[in-house]
Design goal:
single chain, 318 residues, alpha+beta, 434 Repressor (Amino-terminal Domain), 2 domains, 4-stranded antiparallel beta sheet, 9 helices, 14% strand, disordered N terminus, Cro/C1-type_HTH, Bact_Cytoskel_RodZ, RodZ-like_C, DNA binding, transmembrane
Length: 318
């Protein structure tokens, strides 16, 4: 019987293995050959049964560090009186392969985490930009809905500056006219040279009244006359507009050049005074809420009750 079994065992030993047994398989086979359970081995090496199962199943990722794995395997082998050298060699080969896989997995995990952080940062930046855009739009809407009527508009400021320039030009022309008039008066008051005596008695000279220079004479000066004419023409084309709001009202007023001098909603109690070049065009949304006068004369808006007032000043002749 013994001679017959020996060839079979030799044949089995000569059968090549596809791959070497893992460290877990080697430990499990050694334990089972001695008829021990996992709990008994764990009791000998002071390990929980779950850790013994992880060692035999090669689940080293459940163990915090490879140093612990090496220590557990060494204790396991000593508890079963196994030879350490082949076990440690196989364990080292297996751990190298496991570490390479873990590093690849760690790199993938790190790259994925970095991508997720970049994505989250991008989302946060986009949300902040959207929030700022919404805030800016709300502020613009609030400003448009509640304009500050306590400050003059750009059209009113432009009209006031135009009035100031006209007054400055008028004062300059008057000063120039007064200077010319004074100069002419001084020339009239200068005494003439004495006349030659004719005879024993000189005839008494009649005293002439002083010559007064009128604006018409001043106007005879070419340059000054041109300036006065331009000033008179500019003043004639200007109209003084006075508005007082009895209630909130939307309106538009444009001058002869098409420039919009008043535009938008005006609040109750708001007053406007401006000078503008005629003809003027008016569009008043609520005529009953407006008191209007042009050049000191009140404009009757009663015919525009319950409708938008659209008219020009001065009225065009039909």
């Amino acid at each position: 019987m013994t001679s017959e079994n020996t060839p079979d065992s030799d044949i089995q030993e000569e059968v090549p293995q596809d791959s070497p047994a893992s460290i877990g398989q080697m430990l499990r086979e050694a334990r089972e050959s001695q008829g021990l359970t996992q709990a008994q081995v764990g009791s000998r090496i002071k390990l929980r049964e779950a850790l013994v199962k992880d060692l035999e199943n090669d689940h080293f990722d459940n163990i915090p560090n490879n140093t612990y794995v090496k220590g557990y395997v060494t204790n396991y082998a000593r508890a079963l009186d196994l030879e350490l050298a082949p076990l440690q060699k196989r364990l080292q080969e297996q751990l190298v392969h496991t570490e390479h896989g873990m590093k690849s997995f760690s790199r993938k995990t790190s790259n994925k985490a970095a991508e997720q952080r970049v994505n989250w940062i991008s989302y946060i930046i986009i949300l902040v930009l959207i929030g700022l855009s919404v805030l800016w739009w709300l502020q613009r809407s609030e400003q448009a809905a509640n304009p500050d009527f306590s400050q003059p508009t750009q059209e009113e400021i432009a009209a006031q500056e135009q009035d100031t320039n006209l007054l400055d030009e008028a004062e300059a022309l008057l000063r120039e006219a007064n200077a010319i008039e004074q100069k002419l008066s001084d020339e009239e008051e200068t005494p003439a040279a004495p006349a030659e005596e004719q005879g024993d008695e000189a005839e008494p000279q009649t005293e002439e009244p002083p010559h007064t220079v009128s604006l018409e004479e001043v106007a005879e000066q070419p340059e000054l006359a041109q300036n006065l004419a331009q000033l008179e023409q500019s003043a004639a084309e200007q109209a003084l507009v006075s508005l007082r709001l009895l209630a909130d009202c939307w309106m538009q007023i444009s001058d002869a050049d098409g420039a919009m001098i008043v535009n938008g909603l005006k609040k109750s109690g708001h007053e406007i005074e401006l000078a503008a070049k005629t003809p003027l065009k008016f569009v008043i949304g609520a005529p009953q809420a407006v008191s209007l006068s042009i050049d000191g004369e009140t404009v009757d808006l009663s015919s525009y009750q319950d409708t938008v007032a659209r008219f020009s000043y001065p009225q065009s002749e039909s």
